[in-house]
Amino acid sequence: MERLEGFYADMLRAIELIEAFMVQGRIDGFEAYTRHALVKSAVERQLGIIGEAVNKIRKLDPAHPIPEADRIVQFRNRLIHSYDTIDDTFVWPILQKHLPALKNAIQQARKS
Q1: Per-residue pLDDT averaged across 75-79, rounded?
Q2: Rounded to whole angstroms, how far apart are CA atoms 112 and 102?
Q3: Quick check: 1 pLDDT over 90?
Q4: Cα 56 from Cα 77, distance rounded (Å)
Q5: Judging by beta carbons within 10 Å of its beta carbon (0-12, 13-18, 19+), is residue 53 exposed, middle or buried?
Q6: What is the pTM of this model?
Q7: Cα separation of 7 and 88, whole Å?
Q8: How many CA atoms lie within 13 A of 15 on its CB side?
């Protein structure tokens, strides 16, 4: 269980870093995100970490509930292996919609 907690902590840290990068880069919308290479690079790195942590959690405990786990790992694989196909229009909704939901799910799971 200690390793699971460590992976959850890694995921939360990655989400918090993404949030901080967005604030520090003054990313207030999609256009600002597309123009800020440094923030995009940092965000994509953290998304890769989240995907790898989810993958490790699934290997340790396949029944462990992580919303959209398959899609998260698939996106991580795409980030790493098909980096040249990453499209900002795909990443932006992850940042706006899916990360807040994942953060909430992780926080709830850690309370249980």
Answers
A1: 96
A2: 16
A3: no
A4: 13
A5: buried
A6: 0.93
A7: 26
A8: 23
